[in-house]
Amino acid sequence: MSDDYVRVFDTTLRDGEQSPGINLNAQEKLQIAYQLAALGVDVIEAGFPAASPGDAEAVRLIAQSVKGPAIAGLSRTRQEDIKTAFESVKHSDRPRIHVFIATSDIHMQYKLKMTKDQVLGEIRSAVTYARSLVPDVEFSAEDGSRSDPKFLAQAFRLAADCGATTLNLPDTVGYAIPEEFSGFFANVMKEVGTNGLVWSVHCHDDLGLAVANTLAAVKAGARQVECTINGIGERAGNASLEEIVMALKTRREHFGVDTHINTIHLYPTSRLVARLTGFVVPPNKAIVGDNAFSHEAGIHQHGVLCDKRTYEIMRPQDVGAPESKLVLGKHSGRHAFGERIKSLGYHLTEEELAKAFVLFKDLCDKKGIVSDGDIEALIVDEILGNATKKSFELRDFMISIGAGGRGSATVVLTDGEKTNSDAATGNGPVDAAYKAIQRIIGIEPELVSYKISAVSERSDAVGEAVVVIKFKEILAQGRGASTDVIEASIKAYINAINRLVQIAEARGINLFPQCVPA
Ligand SMILES: CC(=O)SCCNC(=O)CCNC(=O)[C@H](O)C(C)(C)COP(=O)(O)OP(=O)(O)OC[C@H]1O[C@@H](n2cnc3c(N)ncnc32)[C@H](O)[C@@H]1OP(=O)(O)O
Ligand SMILES: CC(C)C(=O)C(=O)O
């Protein structure tokens, strides 16, 4: 395997966790670390062990359990920090100690209160000590992009002479701009040399340029990129891993270098990190946002229907994201609308389609996003005009729950002409009620999905149930609300059945071949 590839150093669990508002416990960090290993990152920076006993323990747990990537712990140049980092990472098959100190004038003078010589002294003793403990030592020159390039090169040369194997040039405060940064990076690299060293880059997003600067450094010769899932991190965040990886892959001809990332894990990893950190992925986020593969504009939708490559530079399946979607809204055109109607099983004449399209646009002005259920209702009620008058209504129900959660239900329904009741047992009260309803109406639709949620937060909250049922290849959705969740569930089921009957009738499908009871 070629040695010329871009190593992905993931720092979601260290710099990512420095995001104000994120605090992961050891088990959550471990779960993310396993996922990062499946993704194929080369290095996991699992934490800053000297920060707290909890972080030291999390790094130890990850080092002990997660195989594949190197496990790094961050450390100041202080001996006690390095020792603590070593005690945590030593449990890994591939331990790395990552030592840093600032090299910019402003940091040295005002923060560290050290002279250049003192900083060089810190680098010498820290890197030498770290290297006496592990063979894999990374040195970072914090605020490198704002450092005097001559001094920066001197600091890096010293770190390499003392045994550092990776030299990392961070744009700590997100100040760099790509063109300037690639020149800066290339010059420092040239001054120090590349012999046996991996050059690394670490960018922050204060000006929204973290990924651009990272890619500029790769172009200049960086072969390790430090980044986080979803771009989380201190202040405006770090360079986003998924964006860097997909830029390198999609524009391979430009960069000429690969990563070892298994990109189909990008989307699941992003969702796991979002769930555990509570940092929701914005819908328009590149690569992993909900809208990254959605198209709303008619002209785009038409293009995508002709050939996805007209508006998609990546395939959603390559990043593990759901299939691309055409979202119908007021910007959609006839092509996408007509396609959706066909996929719902309707074959309209040109005239019917034109009429439906006008009604659809009106509906969009009122509703924003129009669901498939809305379109079905529009076709059945307004275009085909043969909607059934039959609809079932709940009159009454009784529930009892036995040992082990078994339930029995009696349900009373009317169809406007007759009233019928029946009883059934089931796996819980809702299942029993649905079975009783099936006995009354004489068909057994498959329950495709069932969701219940509270509409407000008080204990007397209204519960809303949403069910999707399927019968004879027709999908129908129903909703029901009540302060009693069982009643909400029953109402949703009946609502779905009424919708099913309407659609079937509009399509000329007989749902009740024997006879319709009730
Ligand atoms: C750019 C980055 O992201 S760097 C990583 C930043 N991450 C973190 O800071 C998270 C973890 N940090 C912590 O938990 C704490 O800051 C600790 C445990 C490391 C230190 O806590 P404290 O001892 O209370 O010090 P405090 O954080 O207030 O100040 C930092 C001290 O470290 C010194 N320092 C800062 N960077 C370095 C360094 N790389 N090497 C050596 N000393 C350093 C500062 O000069 C200051 O020294 P002083 O206490 O003698 O004035
Ligand atoms: C420790 C270093 C790599 C860092 O996080 C930064 O400079 O932003």
Class computed from helices, strands and strand pairing? alpha/beta
State the distance separating the first and last CA atoms.
Answer: 72 Å
Which superfamily, in CATH terms, is the homologous superfamily of the largest domain? Aldolase class I
Low-confidence stretches: none
Function: Catalyzes the condensation of the acetyl group of acetyl-CoA with 3-methyl-2-oxobutanoate (2-ketoisovalerate) to form 3-carboxy-3-hydroxy-4-methylpentanoate (2-isopropylmalate).
Catalytic activity: 3-methyl-2-oxobutanoate + acetyl-CoA + H2O = (2S)-2-isopropylmalate + CoA + H(+)
Organism: Acetomicrobium mobile (strain ATCC BAA-54 / DSM 13181 / JCM 12221 / NGA)
Keywords: Acyltransferase, Amino-acid biosynthesis, Branched-chain amino acid biosynthesis, Cytoplasm, Leucine biosynthesis, Manganese, Metal-binding, Transferase
What topology emerges from the helices and strands here?
Blueprint: E1 7-10, H1 26-39, E2 43-47, H2 53-65, E3 70-75, H3 79-89, E4 95-102, H4 105-112, H5 116-133, E5 137-142, H6 149-161, E6 166-171, H7 178-192, E7 198-203, H8 210-220, E8 224-227, H9 241-250, H10 252-255, H11 266-277, E9 294-295, H12 298-306, E10 325-326, H13 334-343, H14 350-367, H15 372-384, E11 393-401, E12 407-414, E13 419-426, H16 429-441, E14 446-454, E15 463-471, E16 474-482, H17 485-506
Parallel strand pairs: 1-2, 1-8, 2-3, 3-4, 4-5, 5-6, 6-7, 7-8, 9-10
Antiparallel strand pairs: 11-12, 12-13, 14-15, 15-16
Helix pairs in contact: 1-2, 1-11, 2-3, 3-5, 5-6, 6-7, 7-8, 8-9, 14-15, 15-17, 16-17
The structure holds acetyl coenzyme *A (ACO) and 3-methyl-2-oxobutanoic acid.
